[in-house]
């Protein structure tokens, strides 16, 4: 799969000032310094350095700010990087890019605040997601707390554990469009797990509430509902679900980076 995966790096700017950006005195969150450089640089390099990744599409409302900044200007000059101007929603922006017809599958999507993204995470995710129409990376709570007992995440409980998102997604074929369209409908409620589950039908919602579904089984069942193969990738690296979302996250990430 050398160079065959299209990577999308989400570098959105909120319509309201981001607290991390405001505290750091920068215009948008992807420019917030983490470990001595804008947070977007590390996941961008991880993607560009991985042999499976071909082009990297940076989706942002403010490509001008990233291109003009001396620390991130290299992205605008890189031959395998292109900027696309996103709208207010991730899913609607993705659908627009797909409609344009120049975004080849498979697609790996991740975020500019995934500062700890590295080769090992990408190796596992690409290997396990390949062949699926949709895949999502998650970290089970015990995996995280075994190494970072003080880390606080948002967890969803299922029969096979408590799970938190790792901000890495896979769209393996054009069949993924139907799920992206549904994502567009519930995007404003993406932090509210039960509303997302409800969108997939009453059985999925009831199953989660009664804890009778495993997450793996639930994702596979949702895939079948849409006529596609959907897969959970349970990440081995606890760092996969640590993103730079709050000041305490940045502190933890910088500690991890200092340890190498």
TrEMBL record:
| Origin superkingdom | Bacteria
Pfam families attached to this UniProt entry: NTP_transf_3
> Keyword set for this entry?
Magnesium, Membrane, Transmembrane, Transmembrane helix
User: Which parts pass through the membrane?
Assistant: 194-215
Residue span, MobA-like NTP transferase domain: 29-143
Instruction: State the InterPro entries in the record.
Output: MobA-like_NTP_Trfase, Nucleotide-diphossugar_trans
The answer to whether the entry has keyword Calcium is: no
Record protein name field: Nucleotidyltransferase family protein
List the source organism.
Answer: Sphingobium rhizovicinum
